[in-house]
Structures are given as structure tokens and as C-alpha cells.
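cron nightly-structures :: item 1 of 1
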Amino acid sequence: MKVPVINMSGDTVGEIELNPAVFEAPVNVSLMHQALTRQLANARQGNAKTKNRSEVNGSTRKMWKQKGTGRARQGSRKAPHWKGGGNVFGPQPRKYTQKMPLQMRHAALRSALSVKAADNRIVVLDQLVMEKPSAKTMAAVLTNTKMGRKTLVLLPERNENVELSIRNLENATYLRAQYLNVRDLLSYETVLLPKSVLDTIDILLG
């Protein structure tokens, strides 16, 4: 698959062929869903907790004698049916972690990238260089390159000027290629790739 290479002004300066093993891979929707579910589950803290009857405050003294009062027999104010009593089947701290083999995770990433490429949602820049942080300049680059409403900018490595420039833009975010994940690929409409990041992606997924 060949795509145009543009500069920061939006002018076409060349053409590049994307790695078909990465950007033209078979699309497996169920695998992408599994990878997304796993990522969201692994982000959960799992610290929700309610107190059972052994943990709530209250006396264990029998509330009234067993017989002779005409009332229903009761054993403790901490019983679940009393106000302030313990919870029977409430949540307890647990881990939501799910495991997924590395090859399956990589296959899900290839599927997500292939979907973006097939929909013409991937834009390749010849280079993304900024002498100093400037949200205004970065916004102009996104406008010049005709990016969508939500843009994911992939970087090959740490680039403080670019990262600081994108950080204050509500319609864009940045991500280093080594942290590429299904959730971000599916959450953002378009993906902006400096040409140098393609080598990193090929090493990771090719």
C-alpha cells in the first residue's frame, strides 16, 4: 500500500509504501475486541469493598430474649437486614487482570493499523520537528495535514518540544511507538506518523 508523504505545511513531498505485513494484515474484529477488553480490565484498580457483618460497628449482644416477647427472634444488630448491618454479597478487593499472549496482542495491533490504513486514516509526515514548544504551531500542523477531529500522533522516541506542544490540544494526543496499543488506535479518528516512526513499528510488529 502506497501513501503520500506530506510536510508540516500540508504539501505532498513524496510517496512511501507501507509494510503490508503490518498495514494490510487480515482484520480480526474479535481479536481486537479481546485485546481492548483486556487493556480496559487491566486498568481497573479493583479496590471496591463493602463491610460484612464481622466488620461493621455494633454490639454482638442479643437484642431481646428468644421467647416471650411476641417479636421475631433476633440475634445481632449487625445482621444484614438491619440498618447499619453488614453486607452479604457486596464487592471485595480483587484483580481484574487478564492475560493475552504477545503474538495475539501484536496481531490485534496489526488489525487495528490495517483498519486505519484501509479507511485512509493514516497520514505520513516527512518529519515532525519543532524548535520550541508551541501549541499554536502544532495546531497549524494538524490543520495543514487535514487531520480528523481526534488525532493520535505517534513519535519514534521522546520529543519534549512536540509533546509539550500537543499536551494542551483537546483534539490530539501523542504516544511513543513503543507504547502502541489497541485502545488508543481505536479511540482516535486519525493517526499521524512521522516517517521515522515506521521503522519502529516494523521492528515491533513486522
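cron nightly-structures :: done
The chain is about 35% helix and 15% strand.
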